Amino acid sequence: MWAPYNDLWRSLRRFAVVELFSSKSLQNSSIVREQEIYNILSHFMKIGNREVDLKYWFTLLTFNMTTRLVAGDRCVGDKDVGMELGKRFVEGLKEKFLRSSLSNLCDYVPILRWIDYRGMHKDPKVWEEPDKFKPESFEGEREGFKFVPFGIERKACPSANMGVWAIFLALGSLVQCFELEEVPEKKA
Length: 188
Known about the structure:
The chain has helices at about 5-20, 25-30, 30-45, 55-70, 85-100, 110-115, 120, 160-175.
């Protein structure tokens, strides 16, 4: 969280775990996640059989789910989704919350950790062939951790369950509703 590990940090974490991310709270807020994923899928249907920047759309999904849960409304409305204004707004949010070394919004909303890990996971000092999809990289016991999307021990993300639910629902819906294929990189 955004505080040193002390009484304030423990109180904020306890509040987050009990009031926001308990099983009952997650169940009560599941309709918001479902509606936001449905909304993104409906935009994909309108786009049709064209190339889609999933990084943008998943970032948008994350911020819209978060602001609906916290403030009751989307941060980018339907009329601006996919438009230049909406894209600039999402980029501004990413700059503010995802790239700041002073704060870690991911401690509160774990799905954000999945959005922008590209830099760490493209490091050839850490990964063999970082540009290839190799799920076996995560198998077996390793010395230390290479990939811990929700943290561990006392710094473990209190909303890890929400993140996992959202990821499974979003990816499952995407795979069920669309035929996906990799877009070849454009040569300069």
